[in-house]
Amino acid sequence: MWSAPPFLFGEVIVCLDALWGFKQVLQIRLSHQRRSIYLAVECLYLEGSKKQTAK
Description:
This protein is mostly helical. 93% of the residues lie in helices and 0% in strands. It is built from one helix and no strands.
């Protein structure tokens, strides 16, 4: 009977740890996507300004 609580406690810790890791991975991926979006927008802006100066 007494072996159940520690086991459940361990399970909860493992679950929280997994969720936290997942959150970290998501944040890293989002920051990478954001950076690539900024770069893409910057490239488009530079291309647009080049075309306008060419005219």
